[in-house]
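Records of this kind hold a single protein each, on a pair of labelled lines. With that in mind, the following record should read easily:
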Amino acid sequence: MTTVQEERRAPEGLPAQAPAPAWRRPLQALEAPVRALREAPRRPLALAGAVALVSLLAYAIVRHFVGTSMVDMIVYRAEGAAVANGQDLYGLRVTEWNLPATYPPFAAMLFVPTTWFGIGFLRMAITAGNIALLGLLGLLAFRLAGWPRRELRPVGVVLIAGLGVWLEPVFTTLRYGQINLVLACLILWDLTRPDGRRSKGIAIGIAAGLKLTPGLFAVYLLITGRVRAALVAGFTFLGTFALGALVLPDATYGFWTKYLYDSSRVGKTEIVDNQSVRGAVARLLHAADPGSLATLASALVAVAGLATAAWAYRSARWLPRAEAWGVCSAAVTAVLVSPISWTHHWVWCVPMLVLLAAEAAHERSRPAAVRRLRWRPILGATLLAFLSFAMWVVPHKGDLDLHLPALHQAPADVYPLVGVGFLLLSALRVQARRRAAGAPLVRLPRQRAGSPDGAGADSGSGAGSQERQQAPAAR
């Protein structure tokens, strides 16, 4: 049983509680944070609050001197204005950089409320909202990893909201006023819900309607046997397309037939801002168009990453935090294989770091005689990579991105290197746990669920299958 599923199980000896009526669920969602704060230890929570406050004050000072343009927020507002005023959505150009609209029409429709407020108010509101979403992403990551204990999670949420602003992807998200944290929270909220929920997949479909890359998580649901949730995500995405076509038919036709395939509207592939596999190959080849080699590399990473994610999920009988390894592997794959993944798209570093911290905490809890120092160095190196701002240190102004020397390639490609390393680490983790349990590395032909060799654990269709319910609790 995965850790997320373990938390949802009723205590032994007590009858399972009936699901709350639909009208009461919003009230429960509001009651949960209050109850969690009451149950949290007072002194650690107060200390975490003080640390977070000092960190955010320091961030505000740095933000003031560095300058925060929030150009993407301005583009979103212009898109909303174009929808509200009946203007050409994909013909607009705003800011001194002449930035165009790049998201589907459905996203532009949701940006309309931003036109009701001035730029100054939006700067404050969106910054505060993103910091709150950062804390929510931390909470969802804790639920996914099943760590730390429930009463300590408010402490962790406060620390992530206060200290997470220094992670380069989060810092850049705040600086540009991006929607990455919204998308990550939608996806992770959906993936931490019980598989039995009929509505599971809706949030992923909405996220894909806003920005196409989250659609890969529907593929993840499909290859892990959660077919209904994958179909719900797919039909929800089609619903966002239909809504866009109904309200903005011309823009919808233009986006899906022309603008989606015009990469020049998004940005240059070779610049260090682009931390995808394709961007790394372009810088390595010193070519603005890396061609078929980059396409092949991205395809290989996509297949390997999704296979690793599915392998991790289907190894829940032997692998602690199997769902967390699967989700993080899928997230890393999505960012790696996108043709252009700006540094702020890597906000998935938050659940990655939480997962590695959970592994390090488990490692530390072992008796000293059998303790092995593995996860703490890995956690430290990963954290350092996302705090380093390494890609901005190398000379990259003008056309220097196309002429980076060999010594500058690694810092310029720090996130693709970390991402590929994480996928390798995930595969090695699954392999090690299966071998330690004497289980086959993959399900062998003609083996049935519940067979003595344990291979049947891979045949379940999802979290609700009987064999996954009988699996031992994650350690």
Summary: Residues 5-14, 444-475 have pLDDT under 50 and may be disordered.
